[in-house]
Amino acid sequence: MRRNIVQVSLDGHLIIQVLFEELGKVDFMFDVERDEKGHLNHVFFAYPTSIQVSKSYPNVFVMDCTYKTNRYKMPLLEIIGLQVLNTSLYSCFVFLRKKDHGDCEWALSVFRKLPGHDFQPNVIVCDRELELMKAISLKKKKKIDQSH
Hints:
Strand content: 25-35%
Strand order of the largest sheet: 1-2-5-4-3-6
Number of helices: 5
Pfam families: MULE
Largest sheet: 6 strands, mixed
Structural class: alpha+beta
Mean pLDDT: 80
Low-confidence stretches: 141-148
Number of strands: 6
InterPro entries: MULE_transposase_dom (IPR018289)
Helix content: 25-40%
Protein name: MULE transposase domain-containing protein
Distance between the termini: 62 Å
Shape: globular
Order of helices and strands: HHEEHEEEHEH
């Protein structure tokens, strides 16, 4: 019964097609990476206001990955910017194929280009997620090497 209701409401389209259409309708910035067979690896999305605020206050970001949030078992990386007056705002979200070093590095590279140019947050806070920590330290090292 539930499957029939979902199919009718999606008008025969795949869930991912509907997601991309809806993101486009409300001007979300999004990026997608697929493997050679066309399977979805990563989905990055951010709201325009979040992009503007992240660009204005690129000092501190908190990154956290949650699991089992969807039926496809794709981890969801949330990047939250801390703003003035002790407030926070979701900067962007990234569905990852899995949470390995390459996936985290892809997410961070897209995030760094989020405001329209490469930027380097001053501080990134995350819990002890080793693959994310490796990707963050690698990005920091590359940025330092490029500046010398």
